[in-house]
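PROTEIN FOLDING TASK:
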Amino acid sequence: MHGPATAGWLLVALCAAAGGYCLLRLRSSVDEQRSSAGGEALMAFGMAAMAVPTAVVTPPRWVWPVYVVVFGGAALYAMASARGTPHHLHHLLGTLAMVYMAWAMARAPAGEHGAHLAGGTPLITGLLLIYYAGYVLWTGGRLLPLPSAAEGGVSAGAGIGLAAGAPAPAGTGGGIAAGVGWGDRPELALACRLSMGLAMLAMLLTL
């Protein structure tokens, strides 16, 4: 987007790292991890490309309509495959938010890249900001480890896994065993989504 260069590069690094982990999840043995990893990887890498500071690379005008087409197609796919779960609905909203941001940048006057000149609609931007602020707080709360409960046999590490809302990999006994692959860990997937939520908040603020 069009914020300070340092903040822009931090967003690029954050989104690229999230996208890389989403690609790793495509090889997970857990169905729940694989089902959304591809769409989240597309979102993360798209956000990384959008966050590159314009002082370094000024995207041509045709880039934004391409974003609208790509993420509009992703939104249609997400709508067709949505299972009605909160996470799938969140992913659908994320693709629509990407379409909205690309549309807003396409409306910005040619040759002008100030954040206040972007073509966003204050009402839509405000609603998305409220949603993502709430999502970040909610997701961050779910990442907090649960207190150890000796009577229930639940460790703090297992608490994170259960709080993430994803099924534990087979053979782990409900917790996160040391041998579980990086692509199978639900708490890392949740941290990835939290990072993308924070990046979306920062990018929406530039509109």
